[in-house]
Request: fold
Amino acid sequence: MRRSVLIAAAALALALTARAGAQQPPPDLIIRHARIYTAIDAHPEASALAIRGDRIVAVGDEADVLALKGAATQILDLGGRTIVPGLTDAHGHFTSLGSSLQRLDFRGVKSYDAIVAMVKARAMKARPGEWILGRAWDQNLWDDKAFPTHEKLDAAAPDNPVYLTRVDGHAGLANAKAMQLAGVTRATEAPPGGRLIREQDGTPSGVFVDGAQRLIAAKIPAESDAQLDEQILLADKECRRLGLTMVHDAGNTKRAIDAYKRLADSGALQTRIYAMARGSLSDLAPFFRAGPIANYHDYHVIVRAIKIIADGALGSRGAAMLDDYSDEPGNKGLLTTPPEEVYAETLAASKAGFQTCIHAIGDRANREVLDVFARVQKEVPGAKALRMRDEHAQILSPQDIPRFAQLGVIASMQPTHCTSDMPWVPARIGQKRTSDGAYVWQKLMKTGVVIASGSDFPVEQPNPMLGLYAAITRQDVNGNPPGGWAPDQRMTRMEALQSFTINAAYAAHMEHELGTLAPGKLADLVVLSGDVMTEPAKDILTTTVVKTMIGGRWVYGA
Reply:
């Protein structure tokens, strides 16, 4: 499957190159003196390209491309800088990125006391009763790796409800004021697919896992339309700065999708959004009745996929496992959506022509997802062609690895999840499960699976340079462990680049429009400060985006 994607892309590029030789109007822009990486195996490099309107019209040697120049053609000399196709994050949370830029950010904070101090400082500025929200705490970074409890937050913000989401988004910590507003007491039962962490006497500790988070979230005031728009535009600005020209937005309400359309119509939203609708079957029914949207406002909003969450996360021991967690006997994690509900939504989506994208982290969840995909593909003609997606695919049973290729399932994976999780994964699930099926990129690719890479931002940072580095090294930013964690699973540089470009485009049914630098494709590209394909791997971490182009327009660094 993976090779066929690249061969098809190369064949299309060659055909369009030949067509470009016919008499055409001169290009609007020629970029010369560049190190261009096309992401096409057959002809991976070039030194110049030409653009007319929102499309690329030529890619190749400088002399050949310059021969197309007309009287009004602009010439941009890049002085040898690197160009890559516009980068796609195949699994992010767009509005959550915007909201995270407005909230307390605990990423990398090394102690609970430091987090409490940040909350106390915010409480001193907040109005009584105003919610204090934050995200990205991670107890695995603390000396005491146990889940925190609410008492210190009560003292830091006695007059304000506080809710702090864990780094994976699958658990949160509430103070007593928030639990009081939510009516949470010792008698409160965890909802299906959720878990309340409790003290020895049975009282809630303040930590809510997966579906239990709804108990608190239901009391947090919804943002206004103006606040939602601000979040979207904050995320848009950040993505353009980082060279992300398209984001697969993993889970959207109709309200958010309507906001994307409105902002795209006004020209304010410039990042391309591949929106996955999420909700109950009744929530999804209006999307199914309307049918897929393959191109809204020049491919700026696409709605032809749904998102389902099958289990929790590994860090909060909510990922659904076939066997107990090694560091918590008796706990196998959570199936957050019942398998029959996963099946019903996948079946309805497939009948309506929508791709299904399912969050699955634990080996049990991944097996359940593959079982559902196999069942629906037998029942719905053409369902396989919808390119079903397994989002995360982090821990796999060895016997399930070949099933991805057999079912044509795309593995939508996040390289920085691997490097963030590697210090504690063996303790969480044991060495055998780790070596057999944890973050097994090469094991999947060698069976022909297409891997589309993303970050799951704001769980991880949205910077795709971090993803490229993690994919090719399997090391943290300090270069540990030497040689990489499970180095046989590292990607080559070309594989890593393709996972963020042509593979991600394929995962969105967009490989004929995006993903490579070839004549006929949309002119989405990124100019980098360094050569990520040849520079020392550690230098990728400090490589920055000089310019970002979407549809032939400079949207950053003009």
